[in-house]
Amino acid sequence: MKIRKIKNTAEKLKNGGRARQTDNRGLTLIELVITVAIIAIFSGVVMTFIMTGSSTYRSTSSNAKVQMETQELVDRMEDLIIDTNRSLYYANGTGENTGSEIKNDIKQSGDGNSDGNKTFIVCNEYKNNDGNTSKYICDVIDWDKEDATVYYSQREYTATSSSDDSGKNETEAAAFSEDEGDVSAFSPDEEDSGEQNVRNARTKVKRSVLATGILDFRADVTKVESDNIVRFQLSTENGKKEIETLHSVSLRNKVKVKKPADSGWR
């Protein structure tokens, strides 16, 4: 009897050892392959999510940067024109090549970008103590299509004061030459006559970059004299996508849309 119990006990110990050996075995090749495949699939999902999020962030960040830079340009132009007290003028070309006047070239649906340079001139008048002459300061914003750049410059001169509201004939500002110093004569426009006694014409601020990456520059001055409103349309680029923005500026003073006496602006 005792011998049988001993045999049973030995058999149980033997079977238990085998069970323990079975439980402690490692991964089979198939299990290892399946594990690696699961990890690869999971890693791919995670990487796709990360790349999608990164691409979205870059796109959003780039778009926000373009919008911010465009708004900065509009803010600077608004600062230049919002308090103007004399006149505004918008034309094709820049510098000595300033050409025909533009009233409104805001892009319509389906239109392409502008095919030439543009100039926007803001003129302010400040009367001198002599009662006869004024200092004229003109801010010049010009867009170069080839450079996709907006430039800024400023010139000033002394000339006969324009009329007030008493009914006197209005006189226009004088021409600017490329050289510093006095200017003895100018080419009057259709509303002016006689000499303007222009002198001390000079470049006050040399031409400098105001903004880059401007693919198109357009404006509307048709409502300046009636509603004191100027509209600007700017086109910029975000990656391969062109973005157009339209901005309105409300002027604080009544001004005229008036051509300068000479187109030789810098």
TrEMBL record:
<protein>
    <submittedName>
        <fullName>Prepilin-type N-terminal cleavage/methylation domain</fullName>
    </submittedName>
</protein>
<keyword id="KW-0472">Membrane</keyword>
<feature type="region of interest" description="Disordered">
    <location>
        <begin position="157"/>
        <end position="200"/>
    </location>
</feature>
<keyword id="KW-0812">Transmembrane</keyword>
<dbReference type="InterPro" id="IPR045584">
    <property type="entry name" value="Pilin-like"/>
</dbReference>
<feature type="compositionally biased region" description="Acidic residues">
    <location>
        <begin position="177"/>
        <end position="194"/>
    </location>
</feature>
<dbReference type="InterPro" id="IPR012902">
    <property type="entry name" value="N_methyl_site"/>
</dbReference>
<feature type="transmembrane region" description="Helical">
    <location>
        <begin position="27"/>
        <end position="51"/>
    </location>
</feature>
<dbReference type="Pfam" id="PF07963">
    <property type="entry name" value="N_methyl"/>
</dbReference>
<keyword id="KW-1133">Transmembrane helix</keyword>
